[in-house]
């Protein structure tokens, strides 16, 4: 592995085991979940198998701000987008979040040629991690096929009550134009179609499954990627519900961009059994302007009542 001389310096990496004790939420039965695209969290090393040379190393002050946001959110489970590798995530936890109980961290490989990946930190034990990145994706309007642009990864977590929580983290295809596919809408929608099938089949087999799908959808609530994910079952019943749906759109921006104004593209969605545990009025977009300058996205957060 080649060392890339940085103009900017990231944290010094530590590969020590994460053994900090948990910091309990205000209510022991409450589970807080967050999703956060932390924008190009790259380290100083050149991975020869990706095009990471074109992306600068994450600034230390940006990492510190992201860590401050995570401290304020104090979530039990956080899904990340745009993180380069597991060493980066573990370094953030070990240097900036000691004592917060994030004993479990994972960053599986993805298909992204630039090297951005999905990640998770959790206070709940991780039972298993499953990748779907090589699944074949189809769209009804074309014979073209795709794989996931990044991945859909599935983490099975063990709750304090002994139940299994299924957490899916995704980063759908960006709105970069492609020949014959303006703004990549077909590719992104094909990802959503397959995700909807995977989770829909899981819930059809067991309506009591606790499922969370979160991440950067690169799709607004009324665009095909999101509407596909939130489409009902054949009998009209809900499959996945948008935890932030009650927040007025003018207060819901998650990607404050001049290029894409008022963008709502980051989501936490839940299966019926998990939606039933959503604590009313707990869903928020963390938008403190003094703390969120470390990324171009804002984190989304929701609380759930998990007592048996």
Topology:
Layout: E1 2-3, E2 30-41, E3 45-46, H1 60-73, E4 77-83, H2 86-96, E5 104-106, E6 117-122, E7 126-131, E8 137-139, E9 142-146, E10 152-158, E11 164-171, H3 185-205, E12 210-216, H4 224-229, E13 241-242, E14 266-270, H5 272-275, E15 284-285, E16 300-305
Parallel strand pairs: 2-4, 11-12
Antiparallel strand pairs: 1-3, 2-16, 4-6, 5-6, 7-10, 8-9, 10-11, 12-14, 13-14, 15-16
Quick recap of the structure?
The chain is 18% helix and 27% strand. It has helices at residues 60-73, 86-96, 185-205, 224-229, 272-275, and strands at residues 2-3, 30-41, 45-46, 77-83, 104-106, 117-122, 126-131, 137-139, 142-146, 152-158, 164-171, 210-216, 241-242, 266-270, 284-285, 300-305.
Question: Could you explain how this protein is built, in words?
Answer:
- This protein is an alpha+beta fold and 308 residues long.
- It has 5 helices and 16 strands.
- Mean pLDDT is 90; it is low at 1-25.
- The chain has a 6-stranded mixed sheet, covered by helices on one side. Strands 7-10-11-12-14-13 form a 6-stranded mixed sheet.
- A hairpin with a 5-residue loop joins β10 and β11 (164-171).
- It has a single domain (31-305), classed as Deoxyribonuclease I, Chain A.
- It starts with a strand and ends with a strand.
- It has helices at 60-73, 86-96, 185-205, 224-229, 272-275, and strands at 2-3, 30-41, 45-46, 77-83, 104-106, 117-122, 126-131, 137-139, 142-146, 152-158, 164-171, 210-216, 241-242, 266-270, 284-285, 300-305.
- The protein is 18% helix and 27% strand.
């Amino acid at each position: 592995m080649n060392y890339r001389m940085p103009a900017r310096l990231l944290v010094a990496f530590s590969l020590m085991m994460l053994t900090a004790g948990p910091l309990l939420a205000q209510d022991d039965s409450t589970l807080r979940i967050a999703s956060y695209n932390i924008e190009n969290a790259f380290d100083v090393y050149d991975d020869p198998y990706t095009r990471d040379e074109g992306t600068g190393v994450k600034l230390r002050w940006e990492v510190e701000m992201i860590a401050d946001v995570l401290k304020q959110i104090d979530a039990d489970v956080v899904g990340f987008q745009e993180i380069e590798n597991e060493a980066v995530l573990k370094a953030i936890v070990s240097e900036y979040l000691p004592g917060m109980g994030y004993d479990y961290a994972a960053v599986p490989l993805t298909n992204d040629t630039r090297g951005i990946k999905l990640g998770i930190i959790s206070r709940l034990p991780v039972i298993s991690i499953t990748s779907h990145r090589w699944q074949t994706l189809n769209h009804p309007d074309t014979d073209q096929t795709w794989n996931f642009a990044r991945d859909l990864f599935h983490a099975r977590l063990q709750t304090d009550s002994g139940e299994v929580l299924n957490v899916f983290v995704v980063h759908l295809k960006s709105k970069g134009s492609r020949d014959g596919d303006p703004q990549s809408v077909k590719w992104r929608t094909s990802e959503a179609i397959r995700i909807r099938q995977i989770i829909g089949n899981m819930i059809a087999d067991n309506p009591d499954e606790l499922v969370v799908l979160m991440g950067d959808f690169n799709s607004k609530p009324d665009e095909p990627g999101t509407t596909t994910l939130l489409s009902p079952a054949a009998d009209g019943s809900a499959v996945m519900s948008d935890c932030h749906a009650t927040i007025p759109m003018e207060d819901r921006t998650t990607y404050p961009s001049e290029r894409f104004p008022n963008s709502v593209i980051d989501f936490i969605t839940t299966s019926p059994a998990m939606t039933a545990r959503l604590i009313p009025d707990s869903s928020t977009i963390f938008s403190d302007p003094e703390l969120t300058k470390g990324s171009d996205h804002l984190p989304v957060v929701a609380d759930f009542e998990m007592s048996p």
